[in-house]
Amino acid sequence: MSASIGQTVPRLARAASSATVPDVIRKTVASTGEKIPAVGLGSWITFNVGNDMVLRDQCASVVSAFFNAGGRMIDSSPMYGSAQEVIGYCLDKLGAHDRVFSTDKVWTSGDGAGQIAETAERWHTRNFDLLQVHNLVGINENLPLLFRMKDEGRLRYVGITTSHGRRTDDMIALMKNERLDFVQVTYNPVDRKVEEYLLPLAYDRGIAVIVNRPFRGGSLTQQLEGEPLPEFAADLKAESWAQLILKYLIAHPSVTCPIPATTNPAHAAENMRAATGVLPDDKMREQIAAVIGVLV
């Protein structure tokens, strides 16, 4: 788990202690048996706010709401602008470095070790829980680097990512041949290609799955806005389309943690509530996908 080495800043809204957070559904990381909350927090676009202190504090409010609702995993990347530095600021402000399951990426065909060191400095952390080769860039150099870090005790988990359905065949080949702990893929009730082979392979190989773009970067929930929820949503205690989509995802036996991004603290808490209560069975998952397919 991450440990802070950054300068202390005023703690205006410290995250609640772990003893007071709600009980949420947890999914198992197969390679270790560790259980983590079934919904995480992404930072693409939403945390790229530069040095605007008003927006940084808004991001801190999002992180606080996320932790207080039972969340742990926060994901970022060197390609997300200022997001890494903003996450470091948020964790410092909230005094919450011990609360986060820290997840980031290496994204370079050059000096991977140097980039990881810069990423750690931005987060104000010594070690990450999970590092991933982002979009398989520099895979032949960066994946062995991450495995060495893990073997040396400087990293807990190793993964690879892809998005928008790109390079799926290359990812599958790596899943078959490497001892990966995690993969990260695009998946939602509209983009379902990974259901055909990749998700079953992950299950068989004991590889945890992080889901990016669960709301298609927000466009999916925007398209559904104003549409009435199907009657069966009440059976799942889903109060919004976002919760229904997230329940669809985390009910899949291969999925470990979708990582929706938001700038709204209330939405961060709402997303976490999807990891409570009843999850859909296979039949209801198909109903969710069918209803959303018609509407969008």
From TrEMBL:
InterPro entries: NAD(P)_OxRdtase_dom_sf (IPR036812), NADP_OxRdtase_dom (IPR023210). CDD domains: AKR_PA4992-like. It comes from the Bacteria. Residues 39-286 form the NADP-dependent oxidoreductase domain. Signal peptide: none annotated. This is Aldo/keto reductase.
